[in-house]
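Per reviewer request, we include the raw input and output of the structure prediction for the construct analysed in the revised manuscript.
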Amino acid sequence: MSLLTDLEKIPISSLSICLAIVGVLSPGILFVYVFIPDTVIKLDIWKLLFLSMSILTPVLFFNIVLAIANPFNKKEIRNGLDEQGWFSAVVFLGIIVTISFMYLVIIARIFLKFNIKVAIISIMVLELIHFIAFLSDWIPDKIRKRIQSHKTA
């Protein structure tokens, strides 16, 4: 059997979980290595994995929640996807946003020397900007729906 036929047999939900784990671990370990290089050498692999997951999991969950609550995530858009496919797409979107934010901070660290506190604050600011952008799409959509419902009443 070829690799592609083996991959086709794996359920989409399992691939989403594997992608989420890899998407959280790889930038997390790199984040720890860039900001605290001695920690990567001193810790055993399990502690390093838990540390990297503890840094990125809150960011990932926040991005997944924003992807689920996205106003463009309407039934008309989801009609072509089943529940598993939709959930996989939402998880994938959350992972992509999380990875892009983390690598943006890591690349900034390469060019500008700052400590881990500044990095965490930078990630929080990026998430705040992401949330404000989400609200700027969500609030006008809710207002427009209320105006249309009052016009029809």
